[in-house]
Amino acid sequence: MMTVKILIVTGDAAESLEVLYPYQRLREEGYEVHIAAPARKQLRFVVHDFEPGFDTYTEKPGYTWPADLAFSEVEPSQYAAVVIPGGRAPEYLRNDAELRKILKSFFDADKPVAQICHGPLLTAAVGGLDGRHVTAYPALELDMQAAGAAFQDTETVVDGSLVSSRAWPDHPAWMREFLRVLRAESPAG
């Protein structure tokens, strides 16, 4: 039996927990997980947290982790689903034409997509949110509405094969719902 592959798309300044939690959780389920980035290199993740007196989150250096593939090496048809972590990475990754082609192919094929925090900035860039119900980091409510989505400030929203969540504190609900969708479409075997 062939192992089912899941793709995580990310880059430098991604939120450490939002990359590594789904990476480890999906591997635990028996999926083969590949991390793709603009280039094969050691990625530098960050930690976003909240501190008293700050109006928004703070950022500190996080873990480093190797990218398995460059976006230009990804063949989307080999993957059953894609995970889109947040952090600052989506801000600049949405300008990457190779990544936009990858993500568009997942939406065109109606494959499961898990997005969290600022990750929906990427799906918005390929028109994947128009007419959908989503959540995201709450500061992105206007961005989600501008992308044609109905925004809900709740720990997870499932709209067909699209599963979204606000941020790392919502991981249990996010992965529980994503795995429910994923198992129905592509069980790990």
Automatic annotation (TrEMBL):
Protein name: DJ-1/PfpI family protein
Species, as recorded: Streptomyces gobitricini
The DJ-1/PfpI domain, residue ranges: 5-179
Family matches, as PROSITE patterns: PEPTIDASE_C56_PFPI
Family: Belongs to the peptidase C56 family.
Pfam family for this entry, one: DJ-1_PfpI
NCBIfam families: PfpI
SUPFAM superfamilies, per the entry: Class I glutamine amidotransferase-like
Superkingdom of origin: Bacteria
InterPro entries: C56_PfpI-like, Class_I_gatase-like, DJ-1/PfpI
